[in-house]
Amino acid sequence: MALKHVFDKLREARHEHEWLNQVIEEGLRTERKVKPLEHHSWLAVSRVGTMCTRAEVMASVMDIPLIDERDAQDRWRADRGTALHKMFQEQWLAPMGYILGGWRCPYCAHIHGAVEDPDDPKVPYKVWMETAIACPKRCAKCGKEWRRMEPFQYVEPWSIDKLLRVRGRIDAILRLPGYYPEVADLKSTHFIGTGGRPWSVIRRPRMNDVKQLHWYMDSTKCRRGRIIYMDPSAEDVRDALVEHKVSFNPSLMHKEKEKVRGLRKALQASKEKAVTSGSLPDCPNDRKLYGRECACVEMEGLWSGTGD
């Protein structure tokens, strides 16, 4: 009992000195409302793989905004992943010449490999698979040389399916010795789960990640891809990376496009007030996602009160 009292006192003393920790936790907590999808809305590639078309249509019909809540823990994971991406893209592969993309000069902001896109005033200059280049040694505009402490900033190439209105940015286009160019997707995740059980990414890639990569391969006409998992907790670089080569699967890509087409059709019907319980699309996740109930399960409780 006395030992427990000592530990409680030590814990209280520690919390008294954690002013910055408390400020960060409070300051990084955000909440924003996301408007329900409409039939003409653009979809993010990263969202399509796990998207529940059933939940999206119900939210659209009932005009329920989705709540995007983020706390310090979410930001810790997301920002750490962003830092690993930049390390991989700008510090490691850029000086080796193994990664293609756009490169923004930190001095004059000139983007090497970008071309003008008059149809998009929000992002007037874009990098594409066809225009992506290796990192230059010197800026073509101001003459600034590449330095490890001031590297050129990697600008990710775009992947856009204009017909289905699905778009995203590719983490990397790899040009490795002895290989054709590949599109690559970088993922930050822990390889070891609770109790020391290895995650499946060591043996095989997650299916949702394979689906996301297929959108990139389809838009770039690239038939080879690579998913690279990075473990931020690894102490040895040889244990930090797991790679999986992925070959383009036309059947899988067809199913993904059909899912988006079905969503568009259902959203158009919701606009015309023609959606009923019987016409709702099925849940593509079997009502579960990552071990939890899919969003459509909660939506169905709200839907049952609409009088349909």
Account of the 3D structure:
- The protein is globular, with a radius of gyration of 23 Å.
- The relative contact order is 0.14.
- It starts with a helix and ends in a 5-residue tail after the last helix.
- The chain has helices at 2-16, 19-27, 45-48, 53-62, 72-93, 207-220, 250-271, 295-303, and strands spanning 30-34, 43-44, 66-70, 99-104, 111-112, 114-116, 125-127, 133-134, 153-155, 158-161, 166-169, 172-174, 182-188, 224-230, 241-247, 288-289, 292-293.
- The longest helix has 22 residues, at 72-93.
- The chain has 308 residues and is of the alpha+beta class.
Quantity of strands, as a count? 17
Morphology call: globular
Task: Calculate Rg over CA atoms.
Answer: 23 Å
Task: Let me know the largest β-sheet.
Answer: 8 strands, mixed
CATH architecture: Alpha-Beta Complex
Name of the top-level CATH class: Alpha Beta
CATH topology: Lambda Exonuclease, Chain A
Query: Which residues form runs of ≥5 with pLDDT under 50?
Result: none
Helicity level: 25-40%
The domain tally reads: 1
- SSE class: alpha+beta
The share of residues in extended strands comes to: 15-25%
Q: Quote the distance from N terminus to C terminus.
A: 60 Å
How are helices and strands ordered from N to C? HHEEHHEHEEEEEEEEEEHEEHEEH
Mean of residue pLDDT values: 87
Q: Figure out the total of helices.
A: 8
